[in-house]
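ingest -> fold -> write
write: protein_1
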Amino acid sequence: MKIKKYTCLYLLVSLLWVVSVYARADIAIVVHPENNSRFSDNDLKKIFLAKTKRFPSGKSASVLDQMAGSAIRKTFSRKMLNRSEKKLTAYWSRLIFTGKALPPKAVHDDREMMRLVGRNPKLIGYIDASSVDSTVRVIKVF
């Protein structure tokens, strides 16, 4: 009876692990469709961390962020910027305190992100890759 119980538990845990691995959503970094800049990962990090305010083409860049605490923001912070959301909040606090930069405006959802980015060539943001439509240009998926 014990073996059967542990076998069932093992199968359940294995199934949950497999589902969690395949259930994760990809993130797409998006810009206005007319933005033809080519971006390296380093370019993107500099833009999203306010270390530069220009796209690689030299045109002005402004960042949009997802809401604090959202799953997509946590994943983006960890995977793209190599920081936890807590460390990123501390980073922005330092920049604000020293007067070097203000944090990006946060949007409520992917639709709002695409609407704003699709209307303004200066904006860059990130959304769930499954939400992408023709109003934005995808520059990176991860």
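write: protein_2
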Amino acid sequence: PAFPASAVHCGVGFDAALGLAADLGSPHAAAVHTTQQRRARRAAARLAPGRLVVNQPGIAATGARSNGFEAAPVLGGGAAEGSQLCGGLTPARLARTTTVAATSVVDGASHRNGAGDTLRGP
């Protein structure tokens, strides 16, 4: 089975890291962590990503219920990539709930095994 993978490349200084990122090709999304607004603008101009997030989690810090992070706003390419999503791919877009059984009578007996309960996702 396939599994997700993430590569980490190192560069000494912002310019070297930006050059390395540019050499990899224009991404659908990029994340920049900086306190200097001009660096974020340079990254946007040089990389030309479909989406650039600044000082937010990137794909390597994707959220899950098990790690306490929110979903990464860089998931999904957005309109620039021809996506029909408006905004990022969030858990709400991934969650689907289906009622597999419903009952109008609540069985409070100790023998209750869950049969007839309405099941809902998280």
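write: annotation protein_2
The chain has a mean pLDDT of 69.
Residues 14-89 form one domain.
pipeline exit 0
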